[in-house]
Design brief:
The protein is of the alpha+beta class. Helix content is 27%, strand content 33%. Helix 1 (20-27) packs across helix 3 (46-54).
Length: 171
């Protein structure tokens, strides 16, 4: 996988299976946040989180734990992976840490990391009832590219999503 990434307030380090305890602590009592994530197990138990993490630790995935620099507190995750021509960005921040700019800061650092490893475009999809995530992506420089339909059996089947794109080559 990759190296640690440091920003003014954050350290992003490669995600590890042992981080499942943090998923359960932050997402277990926050089912609404879990429902905003297409593939996160619901409920988010430690065992379910460990399986989710292990499925993303292979080649081609760049998923990072977001830690606060000042005290090492686990805040959430951010990462990208998937098709080389336009990997998908995903992220979440624990409820107690939202609205402090951590997600935007983490995403901006990952866009720069993606640029360094040769990624040309990134995308992120949001459910229509998630305006907070749309604001984070806009602040990080993503633009709305339209809607897409994807199948998420665990989230009710086929769903319309808003697609956000970051064209690294044009910036």
């Amino acid at each position: 996988m990759s190296k640690h990434i440091e920003t003014k307030r954050l350290i992003l380090r490669p995600l590890a299976a042992s981080d499942a305890v943090h998923f359960a602590r932050l997402l277990g009592p926050d089912p609404e946040a879990v429902r905003q994530m297409a593939q996160m197990p619901d409920p988010c138990t430690e065992d379910a989180a460990r399986e989710w993490i292990e499925a993303r630790l292979g080649p081609g995935g760049y998923v990072f734990a977001i830690l606060r620099r000042s005290d090492g507190e686990f805040l959430g995750i951010a990462g990208f992976g998937g098709p080389a021509d336009m990997p998908e960005m995903g992220y979440w921040i624990g409820a107690g840490f939202r609205t402090q700019g951590y997600a935007t800061e983490a995403i901006r650092s990952l866009v720069e990391y993606a640029r360094l490893i040769g990624v040309q475009r990134l995308h992120a999809d949001t459910f229509p009832n998630n305006p907070a995530s749309e604001r984070v992506l806009a602040k990080a420089g993503f633009t709305v590219a339209g809607t897409v339909e994807r199948n998420f059996p665990a989230r009710g089947g086929r769903r319309q999503l808003t697609r956000h794109v970051y064209d690294i080559l044009r910036r």
